[in-house]
Predict the 3D structure of the following.
Amino acid sequence: MNDHDEFLKQMENLQVPNVNPSHQNAIKMAIMNADRSVKLGVWLIIIPAFFFACVGVYYYSHGANNWFAAMFSLLMGLDWVPLSDYVIPVLIFVLPLACLIINVLGILHIQVQKVDEHRSRVKELSITIKIKPLNIILIAISILILCGVMGFVMTENISVSKIK
């Protein structure tokens, strides 16, 4: 009985730790850390980069019969496949866009803080970008691929009508 009373007194005299609720004001925009976003970004960028490399080497070699010509003719043959209207844009546009978004979110951190304790409506927004070279390289490659695709789409669909 004495041990029980002593235990209760010790429990009553315990100091409760002071919890700082400032962590609730921080919004971490990263879905994953920067290392994971690099690994996933590399996989998302391989297919479009390979496609553009094949097209570039095919046109650079002036259509000579080689492995790139075979790959390019295979990709051109995909135009007759019914699902290619949906699969090719996903491979060429959506994958680099997903790589861009994931890597930007991997290095971007946003935090909202109170400036003054007496004024509850006054808050400060802090945006931090961690400099991770591999993430930045993947972001640049994704932007280049997206600009290349958008430039191709815009120039391919421009038509000049004759003035009569």
